[in-house]
Amino acid sequence: MIPQGILYRTLLLAFLSLPLLVTAGELPDFRTIVAGESPAVVKILVESRSGAHPRIDTEEIPEYLRRFFEFRGEPPGPRERMSLGSGFVISDDGYIVTNNHVVEGADSVVVRLIDRREYDAEVIGTDPRSDLALLRIEAEDLPVLRLGEDDELDVGEWVLAIGSPFGLDYSVTAGIVSAMGRSLPTERNENYVPFIQTDVAINPGNSGGPLFNLDGEVVGVNSQIYTRSGGSIGLSFAIPVSVVRNVVDQLKAEGRVTRGWLGVTIQDVDRSLAESFNLERPMGALVAQVAPGSPAEDAGIEPGDVIVSFDGVAIDTSAELPHVVGLLRPGADVEAVVVRDGRRRTLAVEVGGLDADEDPRVAAAGSDGDGDSARIGISAETAAPETLERWGISGGVVVRSVVPDSPADEAGLLPGDVLTLVGSRPIQDLDSLREALEAQAPGSSVPLRLIRRGAPLFIGLRLPE
Q: Could you read off the pLDDT of 220-276 as tens digits, one per residue?
């Protein structure tokens, strides 16, 4: 007979292990994907020549350090630099997708297949804005990966990466989708890729490799990681396949990429601005400036408009607008829904090309005059001609001082800000500023458009009772 205590412990352990057994049975089996899709994943070997060693004036270096900078014999010339990445075949006649940063500045690119065959690759085209590049090798009947649909990808879904981290060929890592539509502005503050965030272990060498769903379809191209150590900490980002399709088609056809361009500078709408613009909640992309001659100006979009929909896609945050516009072809006719003066308006827009946005210049309102605007807690004066020229604007009222704890101080106005709009009314001079403020109901919240260090900005100001 089994002692009662041992029986209870046995039953308890069996009970506790049951959910684990069920959960383990539900985990995906990646073996089919790895076996079927790995042959179309490639390793990319890049060779480039760095510039000559910079000449150092040793006379300016202390004597005890000088020997470390003195060359024995001839100074070294250009040096070869090797780097590597990953990629994948998208057509059986040799077209391969990878990251732009993998092949940027390369003197030679070699593609190695899973059977260790190597081919010299031609760079068909690159697109730094999306960090994508298209290569081609002289080969036929290659294994090909299928492109899926990233708009069918859900947060929490299993995904799989295959690549060559640190040169370790055909390494497989798996995880889940952590978030969709992540905005990661570039050094030029451009934001045209709605990245897929995952916790898949991605390391140097994985760049350009595919991200698979459980159907074995490519849903993204691994591009970036967030790290403090140089290795994976569970924050990796992939370019969604919708962007990949658009870029690859253009690179294959023309060798370059042209994006949709609207010609606006935008910002997020916070709670204060939402109240100022009579929105039910913070939403949309607030237009801070419009480039002269741009598609936005031609369509009648104005500073102070809040774009809440573009081409039928709801715009919840300002970061979403470039993602939508950037995927459109120049010349496309779409509708933009804007909120202006608390009312929704639908405007017809003919999308332009991004190349037109090389040097946007934005006109602002304003002229001369001086005076005082004590009602909101500022002193101001007409912007001097040199200030207007410096910031590239045609006029405005410059804030000279802000009274502590005043409405202007609480709104975040700073000395040096140039006011150009109150609500939808342009500020021609201090008299027009005074008239615009007097037209607002006491205690109401009103949006102010200003230029701060050359950059347009909207803030919400609550007027005193």
A: 999 988 876 667 788 999 999 999 999 999 999 888 888 888 988 889 898 889 988
Distance of CA 207 to the CA centre of its chain: 17
Of 79-88, 156-165, 224-233, 277-286, which one has max mean pLDDT? Answer: 156-165
Helix (H, G, I), strand (E, B) or coil at 453: coil
pLDDT score of 6 more than 70: no
Check the annotation: does 189 bind a ligand.
no
In whole angstroms, what separates CA 387 from the centre of its chain? 32
d(CA 40, CA 97): 11
DSSP assignment of 21-44: HHHHHHS---HHHHHHHGGGEEEE
Overall fold of domain 150-254: Thrombin, subunit H (2.40.10)
- What pTM was computed for the model? 0.66
- Summarised one tens digit per residue, pLDDT across range 347-360 is 999 998 875 333 33
Residue 300 assigned to a binding site: no
Cα distances (angstroms) measured from residue 457 to each of 76, 161, 166, 376: 51, 41, 44, 18
Question: According to the annotation, is 205 in a ligand binding site?
Answer: yes
CATH of 260-357, one of 2.30.42.10, 1.20.1260.10, 2.130.10.10, 1.10.150.450: 2.30.42.10
Active-site residue numbers? 101, 131, 207
